Amino acid sequence: MFTEPFMQRALLGALILAPLCALLGVFVTARRMAFFSDTVAHASLTGTAAAFLVGLTEPTPGMLVVSLLVAASIIWLREKSGLYHDTIMALLLTGSVAVGTVILSRLRGFKGELHRVLFGDVLAVGPTELWLAGGLLIIVVCGGAWFLSPLSLITTSEDLAHVSGISVRAYNYGFIFVLTLTVTVSIRLVGILLVGALLVIPPAAARLVSHNLRQEIWIAVLFGMIAGAGGVIFSYMADVPCGPAIVLVSIGLFLVSLVVGRLTSVSRGRQRSV
Amino acid sequence: MTAPPPPHPVVETRHLCVQLGGRRILDDICLTIAPGKLVALIGPNGAGKTTLLRTLLGLIPVQSGEFNLLGCSELRTALPSIGYVPQRLALGDGLALSVREFLALRRRKTRNWFWRSRQNLDLELPVIAEELGVRPLLDKSISSLSGGQLQRVLITFSLLDQPRLLFLDEPTEGVDAPGERTFYEIISDIHRSHGLTVVLVSHDLSMVHRHASWVIALNGRVCCEGAPDDIIREDALREAYGLHVTSYHHHHPPEPLPHPHPHSHSHDHNHPHVH
Q: What's the CA angle centered on A120, arms A118 and A125, to 5 degrees?
């Protein structure tokens, strides 16, 4: 199984992207940005369609450009229109799906690509995606040393972060930029419909069994790695799409965490009451 | 021989006006706060006390007028030397952040907290954490704290890295009576020993009278300011609060203070109370 180059690429991609998503997901879930990442992911459909429309053979550049444009539009509309976040994101999400579907329906021979973009495919992880994923990993790991404290404080209280001399707006833009790139690259592996799960489920599972932020981050990264590698192997062995396989392993981890979290909180409660 | 020039004010506002939701909250605020003072901002609900603090911290935009803090023309330059305890802060509970980690977030020294041991981080804790009873809370999640515990943690947070100016917005809300007395004693102590300037919003006129060195009565504008004895009087308060001010006589002696370094205070038992 691991002698085949496409499986090696898929496994390597999963081992980079799934923990990366889990790490960012710790802050995505805490800041209630799951809908934001879903909107950016759905914008990739238009990006894919636009890439094929202009004659590109690889959709990734189109996906990156359109997703970043949509992320910038969300910020701009939020600051200028006075509309609620949910309204803006629902507008852009449905708009992106509509535009992407209309363009793809007018192009011949891309129906298979639509399925691949929606649900992910191990075959879709090529050298371009691996280079992008590796670059993002370096940015997040190196940047994390500097950004972890400000980002954690901003997530806890933007007011306290501001008064502590942190440029809240700059950090928020930086986080959104890295998140958008990560979501877009991860789509090749798990698909538009399921990339949100990669950002939400491992961090949510980690939150259930963590007593502090350090634990939460380590456990989320570990769960991301197990879900990514386990999902790719499960996908190959059961001959099912890669995205759903990764999500199913993530849900399995979540259920285990739920039980462990309940048991440990019950035992802690007992200790307190003794 | 010429007299030394007066010290540069720590807070200076010139004709400051602030509008929120189309309503003018602060009108033509002109204030000068000298270094080393413990200044109490008093006034009825909706008087703009919190708005004034948040404006000075850059959390609310100024409509007109100007201000500077610690003599810095740029607020960003002054912020690292300012501590702030907000009123009823709703901390995001999305992260499993412990109190120890929360206290490490602000300090440059502990910015790399993720890679440091708990014991190592605890060594960096200021004495104030001990005095405010925060040490037993260090392993607790910030989201599991009671209102009073959270307030004590926030006060400790505000005093990290020895600020020169401290803004406290009803800092003892949710703190029990002994905790409140301890807190005011500690703030008074720090203010005296470190020459820290404190600007405090409070409704507790008894505590204000006991600890403040200057009182500013606010009600959309500066109604009056002066020494506590001059301001915490029925006639002066009536201007700030309206007509609902009556005076009660306290006959009980001051209670012993639980603070490890108790200070003696002259206790005035004739403070007006506001209804």
A: 135
